[in-house]
Amino acid sequence: MLSVADVEVTYPNGVMALLPTNATFRRGGFFVLLGTSGAGKSTLLRCLNGLVRPTRGDVLSEDRGSIFSSRSALRAHRRRTGMVFQQHHLIGRLTVLQNVLMGRLCEYGTLRSMLPLPRADRLLALEALDRVGLADRALHRADQLSGGQQQRVGIARAMAQRPAIMLADEPVASLDPETSLKVLGDLHRICREDGITAIVSLHQVDLARRFADHIMGLSLGNIVFQGGPEQLSTSALDKIYKTASPSLSEAAE
User: Fold this and answer.
1) Which residues contact 69 (CB under 8 A, 6 or more apart)?
2) Which of 96, 155, 173, 201 could lock onto 41 through a cystine, CB 3.0 to 4.6 A?
3) pLDDT of res. 108
4) At what angle do helices 147-159 and 177-194 cross, to 10 degrees?
């Protein structure tokens, strides 16, 4: 289980990105953070893996307490937390397999990571690629893949960490609807199979309804809705999207 306790984030320029927030993410659940750009979804996600340190409040792990209690606690938390970014951040000139193997570097020190990784790691990386349907592309350059394939490689790279928690920041924002379903479907299936706690930020209402166990709607840095997909009513969507420039119907597409 992972939780945030009175977490607040104000950036150096004075912008309050996240109002005092409390939330609990139970083990094995598939959680969706829903809202427009600037709602606070990315800030909350980055607090959950320690990339952003809260101005106030704390992030608590069931096993270790505060993830910020020490450098070793933060490193241990990050080792067990996979991250999938909106922009996949692959190295185009490297092979798909080499990119996935980067997910194993957290297990090694700096000097050891400069040497070829053990065969066991290569097999693990190939297994991760197979689970997203890309084992046959292992030796292709990453920049030879389509956008959807590259994002699936990003999922495989995160899976190579053997994470207990998976964070995904708008992982399908730049993909077409059919590819979005495939990518998010792969992520959902793998997390289900492995009992991984997934926390995914989205702005597509239809995808949130399809995949989430629990939805947290954010607006202006504040959680304004929490509930299951069946509870995501028109009035709840009004709260989440009331500050958005598109109409509600456009936001729901």
Assistant:
1) none
2) 201
3) 66
4) 10
Which residues have a Cβ under 8 Å from the Cβ of 135 and sit 6 or more positions away? 126, 129
Residue 180, burial from CB neighbour count under 10 angstroms (0-12, 13-18, 19+): buried
DSSP symbols for 114-163 = TSPPPHHHHHHHHHHHHHTT-GGGTTSBGGGS-HHHHHHHHHHHHHTT--
Residues in the chain: 253
Whole-number average pLDDT of the chain: 90
How far apart are alpha carbons 185 and 141 in whole angstroms? 24
Helix runs in the chain, H state only: 41-48, 71-79, 96-101, 110-113, 119-131, 147-159, 177-194, 205-211, 234-241, 248-251
Q: Which among 230, 210, 226 is positioned nearest to 218, based on CA atoms?
A: 226
Burial class for 193, CB neighbours closer than 10 Å (0-12, 13-18, 19+): exposed
pLDDT in tens, 15-27: 899 999 999 999 9
Supply angle C-alpha 177, 149, 171, rounded to 5: 55
**225 in helix, strand or coil?**
strand
More confident residue, 247 or 15: 15
Contact criterion met (CB below 8 Å) for 166 and 193: no
End-to-end Cα distance, the chain: 32
Say what the pLDDT of residue 252 is. Answer: 37
* Residues 6 or more apart whose Cβ sits within 8 Å of residue 157: 90, 99, 100, 102, 103, 128
